[in-house]
Design a protein that fits this description.
binds 2-acetamido-2-deoxy-beta-D-glucopyranose; 6-stranded mixed β-barrel; 464 residues; 2 domains; 33% strand; Cathepsin D, subunit A, domain 1; 4-stranded antiparallel sheet
């Protein structure tokens, strides 16, 4: 579909949807807690290997995008690896009266948007359109479309390289945007709405009212570091979450996402290990600005510290800012640049000497890079080498085996596969390591924005 006809469609829809506003503000509490659920797309393949393979592919596709954000035009079809998505979702209430919409929690992006209008078009979504939860602006008295001349329009458009839609548009019409993700993309009009927590209403919250998307059946709540993100718009001092352990199938269990506002103290949360967020020196690039960089210093496998060249661990102060580690709730499996992965895999190979490596064909079929044949053994009984990430300041993240080895059965054989991946294309590009949500499961993590630090502790999050 041509951009111009999309725009006409969007403007047509926006004129049908406009409403006037009347707003109110409640008192000023400082914390809000939202349930956080593991999500798994509705139409996951019934074959678990296919599911796993598509999750692996999705992680890589997303990694390519996070590393090369500017290489894709809006609304191109990225490779269709199915949209199976081992992610986590939250529900938020927007509008007056409030409409409850679920979003994917994403610390690797900043915009927040929902499928909007009954005309929502979702390409390659393989989902019954009537099952897509929609926000309907005309049912809300607080919906206001942002026009092209509003400074917020330029801000959202300019911080998003693929959205040049406002250029040449000299108008008081609604502000169009497009956001590109590792998997899929979305296009719509910028809306000002009321975000409603039981404790407080936030008025004039900027949210994307999406009209057409590829492979994005649900909205995304960007928790990144740039001004359009949810934490920035709400002025959060910190947010924290647990990720419940998910075995990549549907679960009704949930845990908590907690948002903190106001001048919380600088005190550390008891039992948390902290490491500072680091800024990528390439500050003129807004895409890197939205990422949460942490200073991973060591990867320890068993008793051995993996030898990783420093240049991969620290974003370089050059024009491309390559290297460094980011924390991303929207990537399933941790992704490492190939030289780092190879060093980690070699160390695992040495420590797993008593197990036979799966064939290359089996690994390719499963979609993960390092698998062992454990036929005849019980996963729970196997003594795997420990995996520890050590961060600047000495904070150590000692992972549970389920954070990095996944049992996989196929044919008459049983395997375990490392849920850390690479791809030969992923060389020294930015960032070098994407810490995915599988590695964050069973941890309580805190993004302390005010004090610019990342905190974590191991914790069993599953509620019974
Ligand atoms: C936009 O509108 C202004 C004033 O209304 C006018 O001066 C300007 O030439 C217009 N620009 C374009 C590109 O149409
Ligand atoms: C999900 O997988 C886990 C582990 O394989 C299993 O115990 C659980 O019953 C599964 N849940 C559903 C809803 O299938
Ligand atoms: C990066 O380099 C520039 C100029 O070369 C310098 O001014 C700046 O302080 C450096 N930043 C960091 C974080 O090292
Ligand atoms: C940052 O700005 C410098 C100088 O203005 C430019 O050469 C460089 O390409 C920019 N970096 C990025 C990643 O856009
Ligand atoms: C392999 O098994 C042998 C015999 O059980 C044991 O002595 C050795 O430590 C094992 N090696 C590793 C790397 O676990
Ligand atoms: C895995 O190991 C078992 C037992 O050693 C063997 O019978 C089976 O063929 C192996 N599977 C594959 C796919 O290599
Ligand atoms: C699995 O084992 C059964 C019986 O032992 C055999 O009939 C079947 O062909 C085997 N399947 C594979 C994929 O090896
Ligand atoms: C990053 O910059 C360095 C030096 O400026 C250069 O050697 C390297 O090829 C660049 N990497 C990428 C992926 O652009």
């Amino acid at each position: 579909m041509a951009a111009s006809s999309l725009l006409s469609l969007m403007f047509l829809i926006s004129t049908l949807l406009l409403a006037s506003s009347s707003l109110s503000v409640a008192p000023n509490p400082t914390t809000f807690t939202i349930p956080l659920s593991a999500i798994f797309t509705k139409n996951q393949p019934s074959d678990p290997i296919k599911t796993l393979n598509s999750l692996a592919s999705s992680s890589l596709t997303r990694a390519h995008h996070l590393k090369h954000p500017k290489t894709k035009p809006p609304l191109t079809k990225t490779k269709v690896f199915s949209h199976s998505y081992g992610g986590y979702s939250i529900s938020l209430n927007f509008g007056t009266p409030p409409q409850t919409i679920s979003f994917i929690l994403d610390t690797g992006s900043s915009p927040i948007w929902f499928p909007c209008t009954s005309q929502y078009i979702c390409i390659d979504c393989h989902i019954d359109p009537s099952k897509i939860p929609l926000f309907i602006p005309k049912l809300s008295s607080s919906s206001k479309f942002i026009d092209c001349q509003n400074p917020n329009c330029a801000r959202i458009s300019s911080s998003n390289p693929s959205s040049k839609l406002c250029q040449g548009c000299n108008c008081s019409q609604a502000c169009p945007y497009s956001f590109q993700y590792g998997i899929g993309s979305t296009l719509g009009l910028l809306l000002s709405e009321t975000l409603d927590f039981p404790e407080k209403l936030f008025t004039n919250f900027l949210v994307g009212c999406s009209i057409i998307s590829t492979q994005q059946p649900a909205g995304i709540a960007g928790f990144g570091r740039t001004p359009e993100s949810l934490p920035s718009q709400l002025g959060l001092s910190k947010f924290s979450y647990y990720l419940i352990s998910q075995r990549f199938n549907d679960t009704s269990e949930s845990s908590d996402l907690t948002l903190y506002r106001g001048s919380s103290s600088d005190a550390k949360t008891p039992d948390l290990s902290y490491t500072p967020f680091r800024k990528n020196p390439v500050l003129n690039d807004s895409t890197f600005r939205e990422f949460y960089y942490v200073d991973l210093r060591k990867v320890i496998v068993g008793s051995k510290s993996v030898n990783i060249p420093y240049k991969y661990l620290v974003p370089e102060n050059n024009t491309n800012g390559s290297g460094g580690t980011i924390v991303d709730s929207g990537t399933t499996f941790t992704i490492m640049a190939t030289p780092i992965f190879d060093a980690v895999a070699t160390t695992f190979e040495a420590e797993m000497g008593n197990f036979s490596r799966a064939s290359a064909a089996a690994e390719a079929f499963i979609g993960l890079n390092l698998c062992y044949n454990i036929t005849g053994l019980k996963f729970e009984k196997i003594k795997f080498p420990k995996l520890t990430f050590e961060f600047m300041g000495g904070a150590k993240m000692e992972l549970l085996v389920v954070n990095y080895f996944l049992p996989v059965d196929f044919g008459n054989s049983s395997f375990v596969c490392l849920t850390i991946m690479t791809d030969i294309i992923l060389d020294l590009v930015e960032p070098a390591i994407i810490l995915g949500n599988t590695q964050q499961q069973n941890f309580y993590v805190e993004f302390d924005l005010k004090n610019n630090r990342f905190g974590f502790r191991r914790q069993s999050c599953n509620k019974k």
